[in-house]
Amino acid sequence: MRWTVVILTVMMCTMVIPTSSSADDHDDFTLIEGIGPTFITLKCDTESCYGFSLDISESNDSVFFDGFSWSGNLTQGLGYKITKAPGATGSATVSILTSDPDFVYEKDDVDGYIGHGSEFNTMPVRESCIDRRCEKEQIPIGKMTGWLSHGGDSDSWKIAHNGSAWIKNILSEAPMLVEIWHENEMGEMWKSEDKHSTYNGVFHEIGSLTAVAGENESSWVKIISIEQDRRDSVYLAEIFTSDATQDAPANNTHNAVRSPASSQDFVIRGISHSHEDVDSILVPAGGRVSYSIIPNITSEENYSVSVHEHLVGGTITTDLGNLSGMTSSLAMSLEIKFKLSGLGLWSARVVLDSLSTDFDGLKVSDGLSFNGDAPDRLPYSGENGSHWPNVVLASDGVDYNPNIFRLQGDVFEEDKIDVFLISVANDNGTLIRGESEYHGAKIQIQRLSENSFSIMNSTNGSQLFLPKGLHAIRVEQSSDYGGHYSFLMSLNEPVDEGPPIYLDLSSKATPYYLFAGFFLLAPSLLVIVMIRGEIASRILGRDKGRAIDQATLDEIRKELARRGAAADLGEALSNFTSKGLISSRTRFIIEQDIQNLSNANLTLTNPLCEVGVWLDDSEGGIVSFGMHATADWKLACLRLSFPNGPRSEVEVLRDDLVHHEDEIMLSDIKEGDSIFFQIRLTPSPKSFEIEVSGRVKGENVAVVPRKSIVWE
């Protein structure tokens, strides 16, 4: 950053105003706010400043004045004005070197010896925002001036002790050399840096310098005049000194509280103490917050910036790789790390913006508002549920709070699922239902187990009883919708009717029980008749062929190898007595050359078909689906669902089948025929469920196994 000098533009005049200290002329002078060694000089459009002169109201302790510049020790207000002679062209301004009234300056001559520290040549430590998040962009820099009394004169200033100092720049009338020195408690001294000044057209200048003093060490700046035949000259240094205790850590511990996600614009700033120093700053950026980081490095050193997310569950990500983007829905805060290749001051502007309205305006447990995007999954076992939005539905001894409320938020391409926790504190539980007001996103009310976050029961918004404890609401984007959603959630308190009174009238209903029992058992008897052969086979022990084991498959492969042709598969299977789905599965295993069988499988047999799902490759995400029809099926269709997490991408490893997202068209299947194919799921889900639907004998039917297949 460059030194900013006071610049005043001279207005065009038609007459020369003489130098005067009378009261009548004081209003024409501009007052200098400063103290100590001071230098003021004209700066003109033309090199000679012909036709312009500088007038001083009061001399104070004047050292030099030639009509174009003035230097001296300022003890009280000093006024100046610029006089323009008739016929002069162009304009003139002034440049000023002076100390801040509340800062240190050279009162008595400061010698160039390192180690003579006193209150007269020691820079004061100023309270400031450094190595952390800051609300103000300006750093408190002190302006200090001194004298280079003759050619070869030098002044040494103690600028840091057990801390660090940043010198914005040093300006001088005369050419100079600046050195940075260090001294330890043993009196040992060493020089770490030196720089020669360059002329900028007005002053001789040296840019940004940084000095770091370790434990029990001091840092000094030594300013040396290198022009031998030189009158007394003024120099100015802009210095900031900080305390070592303010150095930012290299790594921040995991944030235990989810950060607010409101829109913010602030600055982070720090000083690099060495080439190995890493400064880490934690900023409040919860789930789905867009961020932009704009670095501002004042030194000439190379630098690197890395950005990391702190996630629920205690995980800290690796570098995200970009200085702008959007945090994930599980983010709790954002950690920004700065590293310079050397000493220097760094800063960055951080802009945060959250467009998410998830849980907007509602209250969570402990009366705190939840900020940011709702996560896209339930907490895992051992995770802290307080990092999820948690609505308190009912409490003991108070009315329901409230009886009706709106659940609102946003779903979009990067955020398709929102999960909210609901806390029921009433011993009697509650009845809850949800109705969509926009008919876009889908809602699922989930009853969770008492000691974990496992799903025990769920509905698609219809009324569900939730006992005392913690439960969940899952909102998912519809395939053709994205944007704002709103659900009207209504609560009803279970009616406590007191202890029941029973009257035994069962004897009067005996004929009805007999009649109803016969008709209730009739369908079961019909099913028994339809599968009588299978029942008899199991009773007589003739059902061993239904099992698929590794030994059986190895025997079949050996038989095929002996025959030398896979075309003999049907004959090789002649000793394998199973039929239907199991036989088709065995043939599929041999044809696809699946070497190892998984224990993860799901099968279902009913009078209309046999359905099965097998996990073939857990690492590759490949499963097999098979169906053997025991009746004619029309427009058969397979649908996969993922109740315990984000939806996986479905890829059918068979070209002749049509599918869309999680639905696969099986077309028509005649009685006695089988269909088998493989599916790849990316990423591998925690578990999934299947549903087969179609038309049989003109009726719509669906086959839904009660269990789900769990990934190994």
Could you please describe the fold and organization of this structure?
The chain is mostly beta strands. The chain has six domains: 23-98, no CATH class; 132-245, Jelly Rolls (Sandwich), CATH 2.60.120.510; 255-353, Mitogen Ypm (Jelly Rolls, Sandwich); 365-492, Jelly Rolls (Sandwich); 506-539; 578-710, Immunoglobulin-like (Sandwich), CATH 2.60.40. The protein is built from five helices and 45 strands. The strands form ten sheets. Strands 9, 11, 14, 15, 16 and 18 form a six-stranded antiparallel β-sheet that branches. Strands 38, 40, 41, 43, 44 and 45 form a six-stranded antiparallel β-sheet that branches. A five-stranded antiparallel β-sheet has the order 8-19-25-21-23, with no helix packed on it. The longest helix has 21 residues, at 510-530.
Question: What proportion strand?
Answer: 35-45%
CATH class of the largest domain: Mainly Beta
Strand segment count: 45
Q: What is the makeup of the main sheet?
A: 6 strands, antiparallel
Instruction: Count up the domains.
Output: 6
Structural class: mainly beta
N-end to C-end Cα span: 59 Å
- Helical residue percent band: under 10%
Oligomer: single chain
Number of helices: 5
**Average pLDDT rating:** 77
CATH architecture of the largest domain: Sandwich
Radius of gyration: 42 Å
CATH topology of the largest domain: Immunoglobulin-like
- The poorly predicted ranges are 1-25, 360-369, 395-400, 543-547
